[in-house]
Amino acid sequence: MGGAQLERPSGARPGVCVRRSFRAHAGDQPRRPPGPIPVPGTMKQESAASNTPPASQSPTPSAQFPRNDGDPQALWIFGYGSLVWRPDFAYSDSRVGFVRGYSRRFWQGDTFHRGSDKMPGRVVTLLEDHEGCTWGVAYQVQGEQVSEALKYLNVREAVLGGYDTKEVTFYPQDAPDQPLKALAYVATPQNPGYLGPAPAEAIATQILACRGFSGHNLEYLLRLADFMQLCGPQAQDEHLAAIVDAVGTMLPCFCPTEQALALV
Ligand SMILES: N[C@@H](CCC(=O)N[C@@H](CS)C(=O)NCC(=O)O)C(=O)O
């Protein structure tokens, strides 16, 4: 199964849930160019075991799983960080869209996937924000996929990441007037890995310096920025953009000089 299919909105008017000061109406459906464009990176269907340690007695998700009309066995899971480009669980359908009332923030520390105990990386969580809007991908799991996905995500998100489950309302980009109940993994300030707010420059420095089991923290940032770029101009994330800008400013300081390279 390929990556989540992202249909680049043509130069259409912005969809629903755009910048704080703008409220379009469900009728403003962006026209669709033919054929979807895959989200950057492949969403491999490799077995979950390939990138997480042996499953432990992970706690079961605290939220009752949100159900939508139709297939009672189906469950939608909303990804807004690494799940956007690497869900690594089998799913039946995926939709690009957004949740309202939350803002994405690089305020969660990560000592496994993108950092270490000595140098924790920074990954994203959702901050309750009445005016907020966060774009991501919702994945539909059905039948046996439900228990498999939840078992895998409990290890990856809850046990290793400190995330808890929360029910959110997801608005598909192509049908914002038909919202879906979805399960999201959110790192709250009560979890031990929570780092909280910091200036964009400090977050950028931490991201540039850290790597973990799943790769460099910079890859995490840039893949998310890549996804947001593909969502089109109506999808804005000022916090993410400020960190990307700060990384761009600092990168020369982290790059080896010609002289240093000549010594290699
Ligand atoms: N829950 C968020 C964030 C999840 C996230 O990024 N978790 C990290 C740290 S626990 C992770 O799974 N990283 C895997 C990776 O960086 O490839 C999402 O829905 O995407």
TrEMBL record:
BP terms from Gene Ontology: glutathione catabolic process; intrinsic apoptotic signaling pathway in response to endoplasmic reticulum stress; negative regulation of Notch signaling pathway; negative regulation of protein processing; neurogenesis; Notch signaling pathway; response to caloric restriction; response to unfolded protein
Compartments where found: Cytoplasm, Cytosol; Golgi apparatus, trans-Golgi network
Q: Tell me the keywords, alphabetical order.
A: Apoptosis, Cytoplasm, Golgi apparatus, Lyase, Neurogenesis, Notch signaling pathway, Unfolded protein response
Give an example GO cellular component term for this record.
cytosol
| MF GO annotations | gamma-glutamylcyclotransferase activity; glutathione specific gamma-glutamylcyclotransferase activity; Notch binding
Q: Which reaction does it catalyse?
A: glutathione = L-cysteinylglycine + 5-oxo-L-proline
Output the Pfam families linked to this UniProt entry: ChaC (PF04752)
Q: Which residues form a coiled coil?
A: none
Question: Which stretches does UniProt call biased (Low complexity)?
Answer: 47-64
Instruction: Give the InterPro entries listed for this entry.
Output: ChaC, GGCT-like, GGCT-like_sf
Lineage, top-rank taxon, reads Eukaryota
Q: What is its EC number?
A: 4.3.2.7
Q: Could you tell me what this protein is called?
A: Gamma-glutamylcyclotransferase
The species this protein belongs to is Macaca fascicularis (Crab-eating macaque)
Q: What is the lineage of its organism?
A: Eukaryota, Metazoa, Chordata, Craniata, Vertebrata
Supply the gene name.
CHAC1
